């Protein structure tokens, strides 16, 4: 399904192993067109005022390429960009590794705490401090065993300093422990977003077996917590001094958050997995209840029975967007740069673990709209999506041979002449005479999905 081609990007001068053509989902093949038409492109309209969505509209011809930067990673989960061009990645099985600018994968860094690498657990998210160039500080989260009962676990957040030689972590401190720890290998959540003021939002899952705890404010299950860089509660938290909940909580009623980003206007957006259907993108606001498991647009797996009380309830937030059927959203990035054109600039990009698709979302106040789906490959699982400081989008794929990929900017696309214009057309090249390199993939007209 993937079309192999050589990379001739003016932006990519380093040696790289392969490049793959990525097309809009609709363009990749008629098989995928059918699959996506049936399975992905039809988010279910909510019953009342939910600001969802039309089907993704692929209205522009698009032919994109990815460059493979590195491969052979063991279920990589998060990537960060170090000054000078190196990358830092986490692997779910517990390693943090440096990848140099030529794509060479280094040995595991020393100093990473022991993680619970079982089920969905392991070494998970990673972000650099906004002042990393001055302090070499970073934050990462992981599944942590209960020191008194190894069958129980939860999500923990750590800070550390990257050694000057980039071979180890120093000053490792576990600054937050999700409580209570329970016996589960599921729904760790574990995405970190650092605010402009340096504070940290950590999105936490409800561990699956304790879903009702997501509605109770006396614990950290199914919560987004807001912390100072030392792990203490942020002074603006809603339960800080009133006894109505644990002081770390910022929002609650979450199921399994998997992507988090703060946009330039300071808003926090988090996606989360629903059950069977009802995956969500939420605009997260202080002290709000996002509904799980009382309201959801999803259903119980397999049997399809209703969960909770329905899709809406007063006092509970509706998602900014929801996907039914589920796409299993993963990492999420906000694109600041104009390298991919003005249409993509200021969009959110969300990976899918289920379909190998990348979903471009436009944001409108407190709602979001899915604009298009980009296909990486039918057998791919996208785990993370990031924008580098120089404005490129990167992906991590989730497998035992996980890859770090960079999305290449589109090349000019030349439309063929209409038949009745052909006699008059003395040339079909672009105005400057350039002929696009690589395949040009047709996209069906708007509405064909
Ligand atoms: Ca919800």
From TrEMBL:
Annotated signal sequence range: 1-46
Annotated spans, Disordered: 409-449
Key words of the record: Signal
Biased composition (Pro residues): 410-420
Ranges of biased composition (kind: Low complexity): 430-449
Pfam families, alphabetized: GSDH
UniProt protein name: Glucose/arabinose dehydrogenase, beta-propeller fold
TM regions (residue ranges): none
Domain Glucose/Sorbosone dehydrogenase: from-to ranges: 73-406
InterPro entries membership: 6-blade_b-propeller_TolB-like (IPR011042), Glc/Sorbosone_DH (IPR012938), Quinoprot_gluc/sorb_DH_b-prop (IPR011041)
Lineage of producing organism: Bacteria, Pseudomonadati, Pseudomonadota, Betaproteobacteria, Burkholderiales
Keyword Signal attributed: yes
């Amino acid at each position: 399904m993937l079309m192999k081609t050589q990379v001739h990007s003016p932006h990519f001068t380093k040696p790289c192993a392969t490049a793959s053509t990525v097309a809009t989902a609709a363009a990749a093949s008629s098989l995928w067109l059918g699959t996506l038409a049936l399975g992905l492109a039809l988010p279910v309209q909510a019953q009342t005022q939910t600001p969802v969505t039309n089907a993704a509209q692929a209205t522009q011809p698009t032919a994109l390429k990815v460059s493979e930067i590195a491969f052979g990673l063991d279920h990589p989960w998060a990537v960060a960009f170090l000054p000078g061009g190196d990358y830092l990645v986490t692997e779910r099985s517990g390693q943090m590794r440096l990848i140099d600018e030529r794509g060479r994968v280094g040995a595991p860094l020393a100093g990473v705490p022991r993680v619970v690498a079982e089920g969905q657990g392991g070494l998970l998210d990673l972000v650099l401090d906004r002042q990393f160039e001055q302090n070499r500080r970073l934050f990462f989260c992981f599944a942590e065993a209960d020191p008194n009962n190894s069958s129980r676990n939860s999500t923990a957040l750590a800070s550390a300093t990257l050694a000057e030689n980039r071979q180890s972590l120093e000053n490792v401190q576990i600054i937050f422990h999700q409580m209570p720890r329970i016996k589960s290998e599921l729904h760790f959540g574990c995405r970190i977003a650092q605010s402009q003021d340096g504070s940290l939002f950590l999105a936490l899952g409800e561990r699956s077996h304790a879903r009702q705890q997501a509605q109770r404010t006396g614990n950290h299950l199914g919560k987004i917590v807001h912390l100072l860089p030392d792990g203490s509660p942020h002074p603006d938290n809603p339960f800080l001094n009133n006894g109505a909940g644990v002081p770390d909580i910022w929002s609650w009623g979450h199921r399994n958050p998997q992507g988090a980003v703060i946009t330039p206007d300071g808003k926090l957006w988090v996606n989360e997995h629903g059950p069977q259907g009802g995956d969500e993108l939420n605009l997260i606001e202080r002290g709000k209840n996002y509904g799980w498991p009382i309201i959801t647009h999803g259903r119980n797996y397999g049997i399809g029975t209703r969960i909770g009380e329905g899709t809406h309830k007063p006092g509970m937030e509706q998602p900014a967007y929801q996907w039914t059927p589920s796409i299993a959203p993963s990492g999420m990035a906000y694109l600041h740069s104009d390298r991919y054109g003005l249409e993509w600039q200021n969009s959110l990009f969300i990976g899918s673990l289920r379909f190998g698709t990348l979903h471009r979302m436009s944001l409108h106040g407190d709602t979001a709209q899915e604009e298009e789906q980009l296909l990486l490959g039918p057998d791919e699982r996208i785990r993370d999506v990031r924008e580098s400081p120089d404005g490129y989008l990167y992906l991590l794929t989730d497998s035992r041979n996980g890859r770090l990929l960079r999305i290449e900017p589109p090349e000019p696309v030349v439309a063929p002449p209409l038949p009745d214009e052909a006699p008059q057309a003395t040339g079909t090249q672009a105005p400057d005479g350039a002929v696009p390199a690589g395949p040009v993939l047709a996209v069906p007209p708007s509405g064909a999905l």
